[in-house]
């Protein structure tokens, strides 16, 4: 056990807050970049495993039923492997096997007539995998894919509302992040979900950078449910205000206090100012959520997303450069004036 | 403030803390900032977002295709903004967050001025000169600021101007080096030099010791040398270039420095990734013919094997480093 863990264990032990024996050093969690490295290995391995399976089972590939029947044992094997005690080798072998199983299952239904139904089935499959597969990486992956499938299904069905989905996602993301330790018996599952939600949220808000208009990638003959823009804006504003409200209440600050009202008013004005630059608001939310629970990786991810969004905002074609300039200017002045007011009312001795 | 976040999560995941005690455990782990931390955070957030948004808004404003505003007015606007930002810097306390943010804003405004100059006078200058002069002119306040982000912007501008220079001057470096060279080698040399100097200078300068800044430069170097080695294998030029031997030298140097001199798990994870990519690519390109399905299985097992070996080794180093 590490010295830091020892110190923390002793603290908790003195307060009678822990149970059982000291955890061993083998149970130490790997940092995010090590997990990412392993994820890349697992997923790259899965591609080659898939090609191998496809070549071996070539005669069966044209039989959807056979593919479906082959996919289930693979998913079951992956599940059983993940249930074994923590071991990096098994974790990644299971991930690769599960991805092959999923790929076979998707190929087995790909010829269905209704693409929106295919996307929905994949989303439901991913939801089931979030529940059953006891692996953080698997849950993150499944959450991201599930949400993208729901968005794709809705787009193909005639309701292409990418930013609306992005705004709606802010609610569960913020709630789960701020209630990170609310369900500690299911901590691993909820962590996989909220990390996946954050990744999806950031990708959706920068979709114009990564996906060159996601909606146009999907065929949609008719738009049966086109909501007005203001509806998506309202959801975004409500979501940003919700984050502040939840942050205040989770820190035990009453909504009726002056500082709470000021914070909510500030958030409302900020949300209105960034309604056409939602990536700024979302990036800032991720930064604040990271800070709220001392999560440095999340904090860094938020900063990174802000840098990416602000540099790509220039190329966003929906607005003129003059409008974008005005938006940024409004945000800048609002932020700097708010800082002046903050320093007048609650002076902070600035450290060098 | 040092928190015990990862330790708390570790205990939660190993069922050592029950739901009933979690609030008290969170309190002892110090993961939640107190009122003073929140105040400082919000103050800095307002300052940084405000300063950067102000600089960017000026660039966007000038980039708009104006016909109504005269040349003089445009210059007056950006130069006034620049002078004001410098005056604000002079008024603020040296070394404070406010002074650094103001310098960052001035840096962006200087870029806007350079762009406007090139746009207005159609100087015939190549785009690389814009970024190069921007980097040269901001150098004084980069030196004054002693701020990591401004140095990284400076490094980014130099990289960009080098890339743009090589775009329009395909063979100029041949005067220096005797034959045409790949621009990636130039990037690699410059960024390696930057990494070495950064490490050397950071020994006596605490503001340069931020791990994330060193990691950004190191990741750039790692990506460049891995890309060169990857291309050498992919383009079947293993014997024509020195990419693979130099990649091996980099890998060993990184290992020796970040394992023996200064333990950094992030860098070691990068070494593992680079090593896996190049070795797997080499085997896939040079050893296998892919006419047998079993070869795909072999490659899959090699990839997973490398991942697992990396995980075991990194875990061992992590435990050692934290003992």
Produce a short descriptive summary.
Chain A has 352 residues and is an all-alpha fold. Helix content of chain A is 73%, strand content 0%.
Structure description:
Chain A is mainly α and 352 residues long. In chain A, 73% of the residues lie in helices and 0% in strands. Chain A has helices at 3-14, 32-56, 64-83, 88-109, 115-132, 136-156, 162-178, 187-205, 207-210, 214-217, 229-250, 258-273, 278-292, 296-312, 321-345. In chain A, helix 8 runs antiparallel to helix 13. Chain A starts with a helix and ends in a 7-residue tail after the last helix. Chain B is mainly α and 323 residues long. Helices cover 78% and strands 0% of the residues of chain B. Chain B is built from 13 helices and no strands. Chain B starts with a helix and ends with a helix. Chains A and B meet through helix 1, helix 2, helix 4, helix 13 and helix 15 of A and helix 1, helix 2, helix 3, helix 12 and helix 13 of B.
Features:
heterodimer, A: 352 residues, mainly alpha, 15 helices, 73% helix, 0% strand, globular, B: 323 residues, 78% helix
Radius of gyration of chain B, Cα only, in angstroms?
25 Å
| Low-pLDDT sequence parts of chain B | none
Share in β-strands of chain A: under 5%
Give the overall silhouette of chain B: globular
SSE order of chain B: HHHHHHHHHHHHH
Describe the secondary structure blueprint for this structure.
The complex is a heterodimer of chains A (352) and B (323).
Chain A: H1 3-14, H2 32-56, H3 64-83, H4 88-109, H5 115-132, H6 136-156, H7 162-178, H8 187-205, H9 207-210, H10 214-217, H11 229-250, H12 258-273, H13 278-292, H14 296-312, H15 321-345
Helix pairs in contact in A: 2-4, 3-4, 5-6, 6-8, 7-8, 7-11, 7-13, 8-13, 11-12, 11-13, 13-14
Chain B: H1 5-13, H2 22-29, H3 35-63, H4 71-91, H5 97-121, H6 127-145, H7 148-168, H8 174-177, H9 183-202, H10 211-234, H11 243-261, H12 265-287, H13 293-322
Helix pairs in contact in B: 3-5, 4-5, 5-6, 6-7, 7-9, 9-10, 10-11, 10-12, 11-12, 12-13
């Amino acid at each position: 056990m590490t010295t830091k863990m020892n110190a923390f264990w002793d603290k908790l032990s003195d307060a009678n807050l822990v149970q059982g024996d000291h955890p061993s050093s083998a149970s130490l969690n790997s940092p995010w970049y090590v997990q990412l490295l392993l994820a890349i290995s697992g997923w790259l391995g899965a591609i080659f495993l898939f090609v191998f399976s496809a070549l071996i089972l070539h005669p069966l590939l044209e039989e959807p039923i056979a593919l479906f029947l082959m996919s289930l044992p693979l998913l079951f094997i992956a599940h059983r492997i993940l249930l074994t005690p923590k071991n990096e080798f098994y974790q990644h072998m299971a991930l690769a096997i599960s991805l092959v199983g999923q790929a076979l299952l998707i190929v087995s239904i790909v010829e269905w007539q209704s693409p929106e139904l295919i996307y929905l089935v994949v989303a439901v499959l991913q939801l089931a995998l979030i529940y059953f597969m006891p692996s953080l990486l698997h849950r993150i992956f499944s959450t991201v894919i599930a949400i993208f499938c729901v968005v794709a299904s809705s787009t193909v069905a005639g309701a292409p509302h990418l930013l609306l989905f992005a705004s709606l996602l802010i609610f569960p993301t913020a709630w789960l992040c701020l209630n990170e330790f609310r369900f500690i018996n299911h901590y691993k599952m909820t962590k996989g979900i909220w990390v996946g939600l954050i990744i999806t949220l950031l990708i959706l808000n920068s979709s114009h950078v990564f996906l060159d208009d996601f909606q146009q990638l999907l065929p949609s003959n008719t738009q049966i449910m086109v909501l007005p823009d203001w509806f998506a804006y309202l959801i975004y504003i409500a979501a940003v205000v919700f984050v502040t409200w939840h942050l205040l209440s989770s820190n035990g600050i009453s909504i009726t206090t002056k500082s709470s009202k000021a914070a909510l008013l500030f958030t409302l004005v900020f949300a209105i100012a960034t309604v056409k630059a939602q990536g700024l608001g979302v990036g800032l939310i991720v930064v604040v959520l990271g800070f709220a629970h001392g999560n440095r990786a999340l904090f860094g991810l938020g900063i990174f997303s802000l840098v990416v969004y602000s540099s790509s905002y220039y190329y966003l074609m929906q607005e003129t450069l003059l409008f974008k300039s005005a938006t940024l200017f409004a945000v800048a002045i609002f932020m700097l004036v708010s800082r002046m007011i903050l320093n007048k009312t609650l002076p902070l001795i600035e450290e060098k | 403030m040092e928190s015990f976040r990862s330790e708390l999560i570790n205990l939660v995941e190993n069922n050592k803390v029950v739901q009933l005690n979690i609030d008290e455990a969170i309190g002892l782990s110090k993961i939640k900032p107190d009122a003073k931390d929140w105040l400082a955070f919000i103050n800095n957030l307002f300052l940084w977002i405000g300063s950067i948004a102000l600089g960017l808004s000026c660039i966007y404003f000038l980039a708009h295709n104006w016909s109504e505003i005269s040349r003089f007015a445009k210059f007056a606007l950006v130069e006034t903004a620049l002078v004001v930002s410098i005056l604000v810097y002079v008024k603020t306390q040296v070394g404070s967050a406010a002074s650094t943010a103001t310098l960052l804003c001035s840096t962006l405004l200087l870029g806007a001025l350079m762009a406007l100059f090139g746009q207005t006078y159609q100087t015939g200058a190549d785009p690389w000169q814009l970024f190069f002069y921007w980097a040269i002119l901001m150098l004084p306040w980069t030196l004054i600021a002693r701020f990591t982000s401004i140095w990284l912007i400076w490094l980014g501008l130099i990289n960009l101007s080098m890339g743009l220079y090589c775009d329009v001057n395909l063979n100029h470096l041949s005067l220096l080096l005797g034959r045409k060279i790949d621009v990636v080698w130039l990037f690699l040399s410059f960024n390696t030099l930057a990494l070495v100097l950064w490490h050397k200078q950071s020994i006596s300068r605490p503001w340069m010791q931020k791990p994330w800044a060193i990691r950004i430069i190191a990741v750039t170097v790692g990506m460049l040398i891995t890309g060169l080695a990857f291309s050498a294998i992919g383009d079947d030029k293993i014997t024509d270039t020195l990419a693979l031997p130099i990649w091996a030298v980099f890998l060993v140097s990184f290992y020796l420095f970040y394992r023996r001199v200064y333990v950094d798990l992030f860098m070691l994870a990068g070494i593992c990734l680079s090593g896996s990519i190049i070795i797997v690519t080499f085997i896939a390109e040079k050893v296998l013919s892919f006419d047998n399905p079993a070869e795909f299985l072999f490659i899959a097992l090699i990839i997973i094997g490398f991942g697992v070996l990396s995980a075991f080794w990194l875990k061992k180093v992590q435990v050692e480093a934290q003992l």
